[in-house]
Amino acid sequence: MSDVDEHGRPEPPVDGDELHTLTGFLDYQRATLAWKCRDVDAAGLNATVGASTMTLGGLLKHLAYVEDDWFTFWLFGRERSAPWATVDWAADYDWDWNSAAGDTPEQLFALWDESVQRSRANLAEAVADGGLSRPADRAWRDGRAASVRWILTHMIEEYARHNGHADLIRESVDGSTGE
Predict the structure, then answer these.
(1) Taking all residues of the chain, what is their mean pLDDT, rounded to a whole number?
(2) For residues 36 and 163, is the Cβ–Cβ distance under 8 A?
(3) 124 contacts 75 by C-beta, under 8 angstroms
(4) CA distance readout (Å), 39 to 52, 100, 159, 174
(5) Which CATH architecture has domain 18-174?
(6) What is the 3 state secondary structure string of 105-122?
(7) Does residue 81 surpass a pLDDT of 80?
(8) 3-state secondary structure of 59
(9) 2 confidence band (pLDDT: 50, 70, 90)
């Protein structure tokens, strides 16, 4: 069991193997997003900063989509589940971002949490079936397939980048700051 900081974030292991280090940092980034969005009402989840249309609610829904996209669709080649399977992405490429305004905070957190739980289960399945070097079942157009290691690293980057956005948005909502 890892240590948990004052914001509920599990500290990544300082002496873990590659898998535990990568998953430790991903879980830390996930918990950072949860911290930045926690205790924010619907109006706060829909607040924007400056010229950007990005919202905390949009971040939750987008990252729920990204979790499912990489750990389900790409890694295992499985079809997208609801709500992603029924979206007309050609009509609204940013549907995950744009539709979040119509969801309650509870719906957004539930969608994100369910996606994270699916991702954890899929990751465990993939690691048991080839480890970090296991290639994803879906490949890019050029035939290359990302490894589990690449997907984990990409997800850490995805969260870290968006957590910077969450910092700015949350501060604009109620003045909350930190890391």
Answers:
(1) 96
(2) yes
(3) no
(4) 22, 17, 20, 10
(5) Up-down Bundle (1.20)
(6) HHHHHHHHHHHHHHHHHH
(7) yes
(8) helix
(9) low
